[in-house]
Amino acid sequence: MSETGESAIDDALLQMVSRESTSGLPHVCFVPTASGDSGDYIERFEAAFDGRAQTHVLSLFGQSPWDYRDPAMLLDMDLIYVGGGSTVNLLALWRRHGVDEAMRDAVAGGTILAGISAGANCWFEASSTDSFGPLAPLNDGLGFLRGSACPHFHGEPGRAESFQKWIADGSLPGPGTAIDDHAAVVYEDGRATSVIVESAYARASIVEADGRLRDLQPG
Predict the structure, then answer these.
(1) Backbone φ and ψ of 134, nearest 5°
(2) N or C: which terminal CB in the chain sees fewer CB atoms within 10 Å?
(3) Number of Cβ within a 10 Å radius of residue 206
(4) 41 contact partners, CB below 8 Å, separation of at least 6
(5) Active-site residue flag, 194
């Protein structure tokens, strides 16, 4: 997410939106639950999509000026963008407020789902998380996608080694999806179909059952 509007990933997401509003601009909703509805994070989102989308924010903390919103609003969105932070806190709050079911209904209606870090973890059955401090396997998620996710794969110490180990020893279910910073994996009908990268060094891989990596190809 770039405040300057120069993001290949954001551009690709907007291009994927097939249903436009009557004004010609897609409705894009940011869900910053994992960061505690960080005001700075919300402002970054609005700057990134300014003039390119009608922006909305699903706030569960009711902080001014966004105030609490009914999760049913998600059903009217073309694209839902989930921010990073604590995966554990995100899942707990979503279930309490019914966001998980609203997400399920939204994707069934054709809404595109996307997310960063915790916002990527949440779609899978399980993930690698630092929600409890040290990195740990989290066997919890919405289960929209099979297997486990690991964001910041080569960007944070210990991420790669621990994720490959947890997939290999069964601590996390496979397949594993390993995602670098500045990379995004596109899923269609539950299958990884392509990778979008914003850096020559960014990539994404599938972690096989034995812990070995199989790189996904940009496309």
Answers:
(1) -65, 155
(2) C
(3) 18
(4) 32, 35, 83
(5) no
Q: Which of 127, 152, 162, 205 is catalytic?
A: 152
Q: What single DSSP character describes residue 149?
A: E
Residue 29 pairs in a beta bridge with 56, 80
pLDDT in tens, 19-77: 555 558 999 999 999 999 999 999 999 999 999 999 999 999 987 777 888 999 999 99
Name residue 96's amino acid.
Answer: R
Cα distances (Å, whole numbers) of residue 202 to 14, 145, 155, 190, 211:
21, 22, 9, 22, 20
Q: Are 46 and 40 in contact (CB under 8 A)?
A: no
| Helix 87-97 vs helix 99-108: crossing angle, to nearest 10 | 80
- Band (pLDDT 50/70/90 cuts) for residue 162 is very high
- Domains of the chain are 1-117 (3.40.50.880), 123-219 (no CATH)
117 is catalytic: yes
In terms of Cα–Cα distance, which of 79, 78, 68 is closest to 33?
A: 68
Strands (E), 22-160: 27-31, 54-57, 79-82, 112-115, 124-129, 136-138, 145-150
**Given CA atoms 9, 98, 149, 147 in this order, what sign does their dihedral have?**
negative
Active-site position among 7, 59, 86, 117: 117
pLDDT for the residue 21 = 53
